[in-house]
Amino acid sequence: MFRAALKSLLGRKVRLLMSTFAVVLGVAFVAGTLVFTDTLGRSFTALFASTVGDVVVSPVKADAEEVVAGTPGQGASAPRPSTLPVSLVAKLAKVDGAARADGNVLATSVIVFDKENKPLGTLGAPSLAGNWTGAPAGHGLTGLEIVTGREPRGPGEIVLDAITTTRSGHTIGGDVNVVVGDEVVTTTLVGVADFAEGGSFSGATWVGFETKAAQKLFLPEPDTFHTAWVTAEPGVSQAELRDAVAKVLPEGYEARTGDDVADESASGLLRGISFLTTFLLIFAGISLVVGAFLIVNTFSILVAQRSKELALFRALGASRRQVSASVLLEALVVGIAGSTLGIGLGIVMAMVIRALFGTFGLDLSGQPLVFAPRTFVVAYVVGILVTMTAAGLPARRTTKIAPVQAMRDDVAMPETSLRNRFAGGLVLVALGGLSLWHGLGDDVANAVWYVGGGILAILLGVAAAAPVLCQPFLLAARWFFAELLGTVGHLAGQNSLRNPRRTTATASALMIGLALATTMAIVGDSAKASVDRALAENFRGDYVASNVSGQSFPATVAQEMRKVEGVRDVAALRFAWGQVVLDGEPTPQGFTAAPPGALQGLVGLQRVVGRTTDLRPGEAVLGETYARERGVRVGGRLRSLINSRRVTLKVVGIFADTPVVPFPVVTSPKTFERLKLGDRDNFLIIDVESPSAIVEYRLSQVVAELPTVILQDQSEFAAEQREPIDQMVLMIFALLGLALFIAVLGIVNTLALSIIERTREIGLLRAIGLNRSQLRRMITVESVVIALLGAGLGIGLGVGFGIALMKSLRDEGLEVIAVPWDQLGLFGAVALLVGVLAAVLPARRAARLDVLQAISTA
What pTM, to 2 d.p., does this model score? Predict the structure, then answer.
């Protein structure tokens, strides 16, 4: 039986290729996802390992000063140093075991302008700057090195990282405009730097200045540094050097090994982006589910084609177990071959995913792909396991073939009762509905698993019940195409009805992809409509001014705008990052400060409970969703850490969520003053008597000397708020495109195998007068019926899922449910086109069959 199974497999190479292809794409997404996430992790790990020395010396963070209800506390500790003097760096270079010591200047939000004088890296990855030292990284790693040109030697010279240089279009010797603070500095590019040991800035821009120029630009005192690297001599460990350095450090400074600093920085960032792995693996799972439908369908057809052969084995004495094992052996070979090819395609898929995320600011083009052993193990386990499981049901059916059936010309494969499938499908739909309903409820732990499991159960349940549920559709399709195309249409409709299980299984793969695409289309459109509605209800200004880098700008901008003729009022908002402590756990949090009269004026906060006006120092109002999720009520207190100062904010009100206020903890400018956060603004809301081109021009002239500050009207601001939603939806559509591609290939595969199965029947049809054109038309109609069935089921389920999800998100501020019927119509039209195109190759093969050979086929 083993030899017979292998001969049967190798004797039908086209069948082997088609069944193997069913596995390849599902495995490819899993392998591609693992390669990409490993590459991402290696990139950040290599980045942080290459940007620390053997020992890093820095000032100890100052103790937080207690600020309660806006009043500075008593007895705060004496201020500690925030920089290192040059003399200390020189002293560190003389420590036993130290080869050298280098002072470092660090800065953020230094905006680089490209060749077209447009800012780079403004809303995605950060913009970084520092001084060029050429110091080696820890453990002797080269770190950043000059790959083209030379290091900067004067105040007007810079080096850029390699990716930024490519993106900006600048060349060695050219002028580069750089924004430092509020000033535009024209510099000369003299060198390009890159990581010799791997790693990249992952989309961030990096600018290197000559040391004295960097000190002058970024430090309050010229002869100081932010941190220092101490490089170990050969044979001296990082721990030994750290201990030696610690002995000579004055009070207020600390020494840490480079490994500790790199691990802390990398692990924190990787935890922050761990959602990417989960996000991608979800789509890998979707692809595997779709691929499993294709594999089950493929093996069902293959076993049906071998039914007479398997029955003959039974007549010759083979046991049921041997016959079943031969089918599973074929599945094993297919699984191994498909997994191998899937890994290769997965590498290409990782490149595609890397390029896709690069368009959203996560640029890993400078990091080579990482191939960890677990990628190959997981790919083979998943590919073989899914294939063997998918082939299990057809293999089980082979045991029900009676030996006497080998004597018949036609051997009918036993089918599972459609009634049992229908009942099982309804049970799955019911269980999935309950899980979905529970997951969409309030305050449900692990809600995403309930929602995801519920949607999957409903999709599988509908797929199981589809042979019965879709009978009316298939009957209607037969009638319609019979009326439209006559006998050819009737034959095509009858072929779809002949094996409804196969037809609906093929359509179900397309159904899953379109259901999820429809769901995301509704979620995305509803989110944008909710943003538009919130802005229409809450945004009472006519223009906004903000910094493209998210940084602050001088308060004089608001003062000058108030003087512009036609301006009624300007509300200035200020932002700050800090932490809040809830249940003993500090978490990062942004804070907003707004003028007392602006909260219900230009800002337009909608009060839910408490009060939202006339905030006193130490008082705050919270966004509705934020307050509910953290269990904070009016009268409660919010323990926070802002600007190295502890502050306890008293919650006096709750307001409805609004995109006008990006951070949901809102306090008064007086509180920010007590926290010594400066007097710079981040966001201006401008109200004018009558919007006009003249007024807009006058306002734009106020910020003309600040290239990173932009002026937007209401429509432009709304479009900016919708942009992240559009980007996310497009990225999801791109990833779902793979599942849809698998489904399309499933239709091609099913039709091609069906033609092999019906070779004799096609020969007879040709013998009695069916010409090649009519045959191609018949197969095309079969494909169209499958595609339209999948589209109808998928779009219908997707509308239900989308509306259910949006209703569950009403309390999150997404109150508008918008169904993009134009997009759904486009999905249907694409499905129709898919049906036509998927039939091209199978129809061509069928039309080229030799009539006499086809009739004589066993």
Answer: 0.71
